[in-house]
């Protein structure tokens, strides 16, 4: 229970920060299907998008997707079919080998999405930026800055949740109720 209470401030903060941002965004003209393919873009735009993803080392995000999904599926199937545990353990590496490389579909999809969200010129400008000293510094420093920012937000949320709890207790005391 304590671990859930420790996560609550961070989750509350994340939701609290996300909702106003979502509310400020205009509603999309038409709802999109979650797995819908983005509109086709020019080959040059897709090439620039792929270059951006390569510069940002985006493959690190999904390089273990195939073995991870194979393992997750094996675990689910093992839980449902305990008698087949030995067979499922033997079959999993075979399936992982058969499907090796399919994670590259993620990179292709990401490039299509980038190419549909930015113009060809914007993508080329981004490539130029990411190759500049400042762009390289951003790529190097951003993960650390994001990690430190998340740690700060979690710490702030934990401290602030104690302030909120104190305010609730004070107001409830005024009503003659201890919590």
What does this structure look like?
The chain is an all-alpha fold. It has helices at residues 2-24, 43-55, 59-62, 65-80, 85-98, 104-117, 120-131, 133-174. The longest helix has 42 residues, at 133-174. It is flat. 8% of the residues are buried. The model is unreliable at 1-34 (pLDDT under 50).
Spatial gap, N to C terminus: 17 Å
Radius of gyration from the CA trace?
A: 23 Å
Q: How many β strands by DSSP?
A: 0
> How does the overall form come out from the CA principal axes?
flat
Helix content: over 70%
- Helix and strand sequence: HHHHHHHH
- How much β-strand is present in the residues? under 5%
**What value does the average pLDDT take?**
85
List the helices and strands and how they pair.
Blueprint: H1 2-24, H2 43-55, H3 59-62, H4 65-80, H5 85-98, H6 104-117, H7 120-131, H8 133-174
Summarize the structure.
77% of the residues lie in helices and 0% in strands.
Features:
mainly alpha, 8 helices, flat, disordered N terminus, 179 residues
